Amino acid sequence: xxxxxxxxxxxxxxxxxxxNLELRRGRIIGLLGPNGSGKTTLIKLANGLLTPSAGEIxxxxxxxxxxxxxxxxxxxxxxxxxxxxxxxxxxxxxxDFYEDFSEDKANEMLANLHLDKNQRFKTLSKGNKxxxxxxxxxxxxxQLYLLDEPMGGVDPATRDYILNTIISxxxxxxxxxxxxxLISDVENVLDEVVFINQGDIVLHDSVDxxxxxxxxxxxxxxxxxxxx
Amino acid sequence: xxxxxxxxxxxxxxxLLLPLYGATVLMGIISAVVYSFSPGVSxxxxxxxxxxxxxxxIFTIVMVMQVMLTLSTIVFSYVFAIYRFKKNLLDGxxxxxxxxxxxxxxxxxxxxxxxxxxxxxxxxxxxxxxxLFAFASTATIKDLWDYIAAGLRNLFVDVxxxxxxxxxxxxxxxxxxxxxxxxxxxxxxxxxxxSNGRKLLKSIGMYVAFYMASQIVGTVLLSIISISxxxxxxxxxxxxxxxxxxxxxxxxxxxGYWFLTKYFMKNKxxxx
Lengths: 228, 272
Hints:
By secondary structure, chain A is α/β, with parallel strands linked by helices.
């Protein structure tokens, strides 16, 4: 994924300012920043849910569109699945539209998390809805996973499962972008981090460099950079 | 992909609308049965006396329910179609639908086809419901058909146009009008929801603007036809001219709304 001179404004308020960023395959990248820093805006732009005010964003050297949606697996920061469907129908829905979707993988994860496929989505708790959504997203063999707050509303035990799911399902051909402010939870799985604040990228470095050169954990560095 | 989108849209709309349509048809049957067995009702006139008060009351209640279901079927079909477009493409579910590997045009077309189909089905359901009731008030199907045929003959006599072509023109115009009205809603919402705030209010504003524009253009066209027909708009030729012009006008506006919706959904999508 590559951003060149990317700007996004909501009216007079700039949410992203001149973002230049290149994310490569085979990496798990943490998109880290406080609330309102522009993380979600950047991810939405990469999915075509927002249009840039200026600049461009390309995935696999293709402008965002139908072709990029075939290779991007997106987890939004809200529950967005049709709530009248049963879990089994949602699995079929994903299978119908995404060629890279593995029904077996989805069923296996649903069973591991004790989710009944016959249950209607609207009858699930918020946490279980998020789990179903994540399972569907991670059951694709995508080239880029854009996960916006994947662990926002789930318990710590499930967080571990989610992280294991992300690590075990992603391939060296793919890049995984995890947007979160729960840094200590994700720190161990990250290869690199992008710190974003008030629409600007303030740091883009590998986790090894941060630990080696700065002698700090990502969590400690985050607290230092974003100290109120 | 369009086929799949259309199939899911039919399912999403049908799960709520089909039971309503079923209830409306059932109500027609109930009305017919009640009409047939109500001692206080004859030739559509309700007579209340001591021997028929119960039957007449039941018939009145059934009639009110049928009218309510008729209105609900029509209104709810339209409102639900608009609601589906908003919820599925511009609201929460838009995060899923707008990130599917389908084109913007396919997403809009699936909604449009399903909405128009259900609106047409709503009209057929209501007609069927009242047809069933009307059947009970006539002795045979032949009597009912004679009655309908007489009504149609009167209609043609009234407008002094006896050409069967005009009926075909009216049917096509009604079908295009369904599409045009849906697209007008879609265009209003896609423009309104592309803004950063007060999205619903702006959508309503856009709808009012589109509606006024279509009314102004329609009135101007009708005036031009009226002047060119020497003020005699009830003539056969003027009748055809009005219908054909309305058809061209509806198709032109539909095309305009389609491209406007597509442009805003593709280039100005703003799911904040």
